[in-house]
Amino acid sequence: MIFALRPSERSGRPTLWIPLVRRIREPFKGLWALPGGPLSHTESLPDAALRNLRETTGLAPSYLEQLYAFGGLHRSPTQRVVSIVYWALVQPTEAALADESENVKWFRADRLGELAFDHNAIIDYALWRLRNKMAYGSIAYHLLGEYFTLAQVREVYEAVLDRELDPANFRRHVKATPEIEETDQYLQGGKHRPPRLYRFTGRPGLDPDNRSTP
Amino acid sequence: MIFALRPSERSGRPTLWIPLVRRIREPFKGLWALPGGPLSHTESLPDAALRNLRETTGLAPSYLEQLYAFGGLHRSPTQRVVSIVYWALVQPTEAALADESENVKWFRADRLGELAFDHNAIIDYALWRLRNKMAYGSIAYHLLGEYFTLAQVREVYEAVLDRELDPANFRRHVKATPEIEETDQYLQGGKHRPPRLYRFTGRPGLDPDNRSTP
DNA sequence: TTAGTTCTAGTCAATTTGACTATAACTAAT
DNA sequence: ATTAGTTATAGTCAAATTGACTAGAACTAA
């Protein structure tokens, strides 16, 4: 499953979006579902996740991590299925390149209808984990591009945690993390004082055994 | 994989131990390995983990949680194997009931030799996760019995985190967590002032979707 | 009765956090 | 050109938390 930031239709502020694919066969024909597919004997788990992602949506995530293995007996009405779910974060520029079609669409993460299988529960769990990781580690930067302003980082936190944060205190907090590097560039073209651009110098992610954050 | 506290041979202080089983067939015949086995079509993932645990060691854990799904292509030299690993914590009284034999033995977690498959890496990851969970959540209590003293809790933390903690400050920290309940019992029979007994009132664990701690 | 040890409650300074104020730097309207 | 409006940024201050430490309470063993 994939998270990306997209501007909300109304406020224009960034919100979390998820691409889903429509089921074209039973069970749950016609309902929306998470992209996925079988694991071949010759590919690793993250490779299979990346391949499925590419084949269905054309996306190339900047962050990929194992979420959880779901193996309940009645996840599918027709057969026993064990799904090892990965979750990915994609940057806005990449997300814009995604193939959208009749059967592949983006949805706001907080406004999903009833999905196929247990996919609502899986997304709930992923959202919980995303919020948790945000509170501690430095995962938010994988939702942003290479350069960003501190206000943009704050908007990401506000979108995911769903509450407002004090700009001054948030700035102090971010500036205290060593992985954030100040550049001498400024974002021009805004309506007000141009903010300084920063960049994230942490590791790229894309690794299941990624042990830097709880 | 299972963690339990056992007194160290020398100091007698509690340390982390892990039960392993000896491989009786190829590959890795003769080496020690984590207990495990196949998943049947009619049991859930945690059920399968509990059954395997019971069959090989006779243990009934007080805490069970999914660790990670390992699916590298060359984990076994003979075939492609995907292992969905669970980890368990057992209380000392339960651990003492474990079946030990020629082919099932307890080992100190920090003194393991070379194990079969990628099991050393799996244990390293589990240890990392255990330390991480200890630092935040209230997982340590599943390694203890129903009643415990604050010094015992501290010893668990010291054993797992491998550093000494100030008794007074640790006490203040533990007493501030609402899940710890003070009883009006005292542990008698010690050599010094009898410490008060406490109990843990949090949820029992034993659930894969256990979302209370990061 | 005394020495030794742990249990327990507390102090105090250093650090972190949350709420807030003030100035800087830009755009858009007058 | 000036002013109003808005965001960016730096800083203050009190409250809360943390780490290092002191001291009395309560028991056992000599």
Automatic annotation (TrEMBL), chains A, B:
Q: Which InterPro entries match?
A: NUDIX_hydrolase-like_dom_sf, NUDIX_hydrolase_dom, WH-like_DNA-bd_sf, WH_DNA-bd_sf, WHD_NrtR
Keyword terms, alphabetized = Hydrolase
Annotated Gene Ontology MF terms? 8-oxo-7,8-dihydrodeoxyguanosine triphosphate pyrophosphatase activity
Read off the SUPFAM superfamilies from this record: Nudix, Winged helix' DNA-binding domain
Which major enzyme category is it?
A: hydrolase
Look up the EC number in the record and give it. 3.6.1.55
Please state every residue range assigned to the domain named Nudix hydrolase: 1-131
What protein name applies here? 8-oxo-dGTP diphosphatase
Originating species: Arthrobacter ginsengisoli
